[in-house]
Fold this sequence. Notes:
By secondary structure, the chain is mainly alpha-helical. It has helices at 26-60, 64-100.
Amino acid sequence: MLTLPQPAGLPTDIDIDPNSSGLPGIAQLREIVGAVMTIGLILAVLAVIIAALVWAFGSNSSNPHLASRGKSGVLVALAAAVVCGGAVALVNFFWNVGQTVS
């Protein structure tokens, strides 16, 4: 196996952590992301309500296609709420997993 010499001046280990005060506007960006998350959750709740109404209307009118579309809409809206609500936890989880890779 051929080993190449390490050029002088290059560090062998690089250790970089997120810097929450390195750029101006980080606090405002966090507020914007929080507001977008709130809007996403509100829209997910609205989507669940609309899809449930479509499901109920389809079931009441004996329209199986409309009822199945309503069921699918409820599931998609609930999945969207899980992703919006758990986005921070998911990112933190994968950040921690990435920190263990060496």
